[in-house]
Structure formats: C-alpha cells, structure tokens
Amino acid sequence: MSAPSLVPAGASPHAIRLACRSGAFAGLTSGIAAGYVQGNIVILPRDWADDFLRFCQRNPKPCPLIAVGDPGDPAFEELGLDLDIRTDLPAYRIYDHGKLVAEVPDIIAHWRKDFVAFVIGCSYSFEEALGAAGLGIRHVECGSIVPMYRTNLACRPAGRLSGKMVVSMRPFTPAHAIRAIEITSCFAAVHGAPVHLGAPEAIGIADLSAPAFGDPVPLRPGEIPVFWACGYTPQTVIEHAAPPLAITHAPGRLLVTDLLNARLGAT
Amino acid sequence: MSAPSLVPAGASPHAIRLACRSGAFAGLTSGIAAGYVQGNIVILPRDWADDFLRFCQRNPKPCPLIAVGDPGDPAFEELGLDLDIRTDLPAYRIYDHGKLVAEVPDIIAHWRKDFVAFVIGCSYSFEEALGAAGLGIRHVECGSIVPMYRTNLACRPAGRLSGKMVVSMRPFTPAHAIRAIEITSCFAAVHGAPVHLGAPEAIGIADLSAPAFGDPVPLRPGEIPVFWACGYTPQTVIEHAAPPLAITHAPGRLLVTDLLNARLGAT
C-alpha cells in the first residue's frame, strides 16, 4: 500500500517541502525523508487555539507538541529552512463546524491573520528507533496503516475541548514489548511510552480486528497488543468540539521537518 | 514479617556494618539504611572466580556486578568506609560441593588468600525508586518475601557455570507495569528492565501460587505479573555447579554499602 512517490528516495526535507509547494508531490509521507521528524498539523483560529494549546499541555502523550506558531505567521524557522505551513504539506483537510468539507493541496486561499498552527509529534519517529533496535513492526511488515482504536481513557479537558484518547496498537512478544517500552519512553516528544498493554477490553476496546481507523493486523501466538497514545486524538477531539473552522493535514500526509528523529530520543 | 532490628532506624551504612562486625546485629537488611545500595555476596576460590566473573559479564540482568574484589583482599574501598567483606554482613552461608553446610556470623576463620568476593546488585534499589514513583509493591504491602520462580530462560554459560534464570515477580496494572519498566530500565546495575510480563507459562512457570523461593502474593483483577531477573540466579547456578567451596550472604541479610541508590539510576 505504498503511495506513488514523486520525490527521490534520498530527497532532503527541504526538497520534499518544495515538491509539496509546487504540487509535484501529494503522496503519503511514510517511508520518505528517513531520519527526519514528521509532524501532524492542526490549525485553528486564535480563540480556539488557546484552548487547544492548554489541551496539548495537559495531554502530552496523545498531543506531544513539537512547535506552535505565532498567530498569522506561517513560518516555523525552528522546524525547517524556508518552511511555509500553508503550502509545504502534500494535502490538507478543512473542517467546517467539525464536518470535513474539503481536501486541498494548499491553504493559501484559506489562511487568516488569526490562524495558529500546531505541529504535533508522530509515531514515525519512534517506529524508526524500534526498527533500528531490531523489533518488527507488524503494520509495516503488512504494508498497511497502523490500527487505531477509540478508548475509554479520558483526556484532561481544556475549555471547550474534551474527549477520549485514540490509541495505536502494535503487537509484540513480551520481551519485545519490554524493549519497546524502554525505547519509546525516551521519545516523550512523540507519544512516549505506551499507555496500555494486554487486555484490550480494559481500555474499552471491544474488538482488535475492528480498528476505528487504519487496518487490523494479525497477532501471533504469544504476542500481546501494546497501545500507544495516538496523534489522531486531537483530530477527533476537534471534530467533536466542532469549531467554526479547523484545518489539519490529510491522513498519512504529514509535515516533513529538518529535525532529526535522533534529536528527539533522550538517551 | 519484619525482623527484630538492633540498629537505629537512621543508622548509617558504616554503623550497620560495625554492628554486624561486633555481632550486635544479625537481622534482615530490608528496610534499613534507606537510600543506600545493598548487595548480594558470592565468594569463590580463584579458579572458580574466573568462570563466575565471565558468567556475570555474560548475564548482566540476573548477575549485575557492582564490584569484584582482588584475590585474598576483604576490603572494598569503593563500596564503603572501612568495609571488611568477612565480617560486615549479618550472616553468611557456606557451601561444600554445592551443599549448604553452615550459616555463620562471620567468615574470618574460613577466609583464604585465593578467595575472590563478588558484590551483585539487588532489587531493593529499584524497589525504592518504584515506591517513590507511587507504585505499590505487593510483597512489601504483604510484609512477605518477594516470590521467586525457576524459569526455562537459559543463562549464557561460562566455563563450568550454567543454568536457568531465576526471576522475581511483582504484579501491576498494565499502566503501572509500563511505568515500572520505564523506571527499572534506568537501573541496569540492579537487574534493569523486566525479562518478561504476562503469561507465566511462556517462561516455564507452571503455577504463580507456588514460588520456588519467597512467598506467593495475590494478583488483583486486571493486574499482570511482571518478572525481573533475580539475584538468586547466581546462587542456584553455583549450587548446581558444586565448587568445592562457596560462600554467600544468608537470605535477606545483605551487604549494606555507602553507595546511594540514586547514583545507580541513569536519568
């Protein structure tokens, strides 16, 4: 299920962003710009952005904030050379009162002076570290999208924003689960250690074979499911709160930054 | 099940060692000298010590070596002021060809110029960190000795020494298990992260209610058993290998050092 990529395998993050900007690239960002941090994007009008910033601060596992922009400013100097958040992603989704109304290649025409952009860490960063440690990641092996589930784990509310945590699941043997916990606990900027392992029903998941988002993956004998807080959480929370306007990245089409994944992992 | 303690609650490690030396204290060392590293002791003749040193190097989780003495030298300057390994533990056990033949208050009369003493990390150090993080430790709550089990996990052999790993078990909720893994992974000098969690039968444990050593503890609904490599492993390996002579600490009566537990935890 790899997307047709119009960027060379070794393209720099800057080259990828420019390809997004020109319209030459609109594909999935998994598997490109190896070694570099990718980010989920949420853009909100200022009066909602304040709530969201507090929501992220109170829920660092599902909403690990890598950067927040100044109102009206589309640049993120600390994240990348010449970065323009309005054009440098492969595709964007626009929500009107919580309803998806459009998927667009850039948001130049929609940008407003009161928009605040948030860049939120993504599991690609820690999956790279898990792979480097020799742990097989099932959905990568299957060439599918990580299975994600709604849970009964409540996020800490902030203003008009509240909701339950969405989690992603990766199956491991117990020994590999322990190693995965050790590794991901060093990646607080990208969801950190898991929030649960073992019995899915303990966090309100009725059926592992029916994820709310993504694709199911098989568990092999002796494996246990390990659950990480997922960057899909803020998106579902915002859809539920239904602000007049919100913009996010399109699924699987993230912001590629100049930051190195290795910089995120405390050692 | 707390032992009668003849040392004041706030006694320094040095004062405790002197009380052991004079015979004033021969009790359990759990719960005394809070904050300080305690060590399991193994003493072997030099020709066996070489095998054992390699065994520890190859099996750092069950045998985390804190210090090894010079042949014939009972001092450990790096571990404590004025420390004498022959007198400064509450009690010792002597094994003749793998058979326990005596429990004695000191080993002055047994000491030889070819003896090499090993000090091995103990779970007291990481249990203190778990408690400080707000995790309840079941056997401490029960006032009993941690349950320990023989497993089918093979240690890497070294010379005449080989055998299966012994593990200790602490039950936790999944969320607390994850936190416990994060914390103990920083304590490589005292067994480090767990070696297994969940299904006991996967590592050859048939019945959690029948530990090989220590006392069983109850698991509450939703809890999973979490298994750490245990300092009882070297003792069982040595008993099995049956060297002509071996000396260990008596169960629960460890060497109290001047090292701070906090120094062991990488952060």
TrEMBL record, chains A, B:
Alphabetical UniProt keywords: Lyase
Protein name: Putative hydro-lyase EZH22_12335
Record-listed E.C. numbers: 4.2.1.-
Signal peptide: none
UniProt KW Lyase keyword: yes
Organism for this UniProt entry: Xanthobacter dioxanivorans
Gene Ontology MF, one: lyase activity
Annotated PANTHER family: D-GLUTAMATE CYCLASE, MITOCHONDRIAL (PTHR32022:SF10)
